[in-house]
Amino acid sequence: MDLNSAYVLKALCYPRMKVGNEFVTKGQTVQQAAMMTEEEGAGHHLERMKKNLEGTVSDLQHCPDEAENLSMKDGKKLLQKQETRVNYQFLHLGPL
Fold it and tell me: What pLDDT is recorded for position 76?
């Protein structure tokens, strides 16, 4: 008696039953299958929503950093401009 151990193990762990014209490893009614499909669709929808929200949060976290960098850059430009004016006046008017 020569039995394939993998085949026997598969047959014991995943029994097959006849549903309609097919043999399946998991028997479900039509209603159960439809419910599972709806749950999977809802799960995928929630995953997409979660991913979109994570992206939005990430974008919003970068906004304050960018605003701070721009304000620092603008502040440096204004300071440089004021220093140029002071130097110009110092050269033309002389020390006080």
Answer: 81
